[in-house]
Amino acid sequence: SLALPFLFLLPWTLCNWRLHRSFQLFDGRAQWNMVTGAIGLVSTFEGDYMALAGIKPGENATLWAAKKIITAPGAYLSGLAGRTRLFFKAHAAAFSIWLLAALLSLRLPGARRVNSLILYFLAVHLAFSTEDRYFMALFPLMFAASAASLLAIAGGTGEARRDGTLAAAAGALPSAAAA
User: Fold this and answer.
1) Helix 61-71 and helix 73-90: axis angle, to 10°?
2) d(CA 95, CA 75)
3) How far is CA 17 from the centre of its chain?
4) 159 pLDDT above the threshold of 90
5) pLDDT at 154 over 60
6) Three-state DSSP class for 34?
7) Is the pLDDT reported for residue 93 higher than 60?
8) In whole angstroms, what is the distance from residue 74 CA to residue 141 CA?
9) What's this model's pTM, rounded to 2 decimal places?
10) Which residues lie closer than 8 Å to 43 by C-beta, 6 or more apart?
11) Model pLDDT for residues 24-47, shown as the tens digit of each residue
12) Which of 17, 58, 116, 154 is the most exposed place for a label (fewest CB within 10 A)?
């Protein structure tokens, strides 16, 4: 069951293998963010990231970024701190509401799984240079998870649970206003 989501990546991986004759999990734009994140940039930019970083033509940008982070972690950690600060400064209220609901629902297995997905999304997007719009997909999930967790904590069975599902869906509506 855990392998099922990876099956959806199989067509992408095979397409990249046929086009480039190499294993490429990410497209070129992801490498852009990895390289600029590795050199400590907080946000993405328009321009030649390979020239900025000093990467030679034909050199694997993903491996270059990994080596850069390992050999000079200071710039990367500074960028990571800046990206984290940028996210929390812009979205403190949404994150605080979700975090409170997540902490209150730690004992609920379903809530733990959804909250793990939210943390995973944040970790992936904060790891490398980012833009605020990258996080827009996260907010419906955060609001719905918060509403569902708080309703589950409040209890209820049968009809109350059905109403809770509707309320959880309605919990995603504030993200539409924020977008």
Assistant:
1) 100
2) 26
3) 25
4) no
5) yes
6) helix
7) yes
8) 33
9) 0.72
10) 86, 129, 130, 131
11) 666 657 788 899 999 999 998 888
12) 58
